Amino acid sequence: MKKLLSVLVCVLLTQSFTTAQEKSTAEGLKVEKAVAATSVENREPVGENKEFEATVGTVWCWTKITAQTTPTTIKHVWYADDQKVFEKVLEIKYPSTRTWSAKSVKAGNWRVDVTDEAGGVLASVSFAVK
């Protein structure tokens, strides 16, 4: 019984993690990867982290997304201490796209939600600025 309970807990945790990291929508959008970084060079994130010094000034949210139907759009919705502070619409022109947005940041807990056109959250990136 104990073994069965352990397996069930592992399955549920794995399913929850996968759902949070890689949700797909009816439109066929899938976030392959989303990270916070200090910059983007050659279409790739640089300085990926979950915690940044306040002196960083700007943080970038980089997203790799696949889409069954193009063109379409996604949004990066930025939150500072659970208050919405910025929203950027990003065009998805190709079936596999790397895209990003940037925001000046101050100390606090930050989150960027990657959403579809209807506002459904596809992925979230959380980070702290100390």
Q: Can you identify the CATH class?
A: Mainly Beta
Low-confidence stretches: 4-22
Largest sheet: 5 strands, mixed
Total domains: 1
The CATH superfamily bears the name: Macroglobulin (MG2) domain
**CATH level 3 topology:** Immunoglobulin-like
Mean pLDDT: 86
Q: Which CATH-level-2 architecture? A: Sandwich
In terms of DSSP E residues, the strand content is over 45%
| H and E order | HEEEEEEEEEE
- In DSSP terms (H or I, runs of 4 or more residues), the helix count works out at 1
Explain what you see.
This protein is α+β, with helices and mostly antiparallel strands. The chain is 15% helix and 55% strand. The protein has one domain (24-129): Macroglobulin (MG2) domain (Immunoglobulin-like, Sandwich). It has one helix spanning 2-21; strands at 29-37, 39-41, 44-46, 51-52, 58-67, 72-80, 83-92, 96-104, 108-115, 121-129. The strands form three sheets. Strands 4-10-9-6-7 form a five-stranded mixed sheet, with no helix packed on it. A three-stranded antiparallel sheet has the order 1-5-8, with no helix packed on it. Strands 2-3 form a two-stranded antiparallel sheet. Strand 6 (72-80) and strand 7 (83-92) form a beta hairpin. It is globular, with a radius of gyration of 16 Å. The protein starts with a helix and ends with a strand. The relative contact order is 0.23.
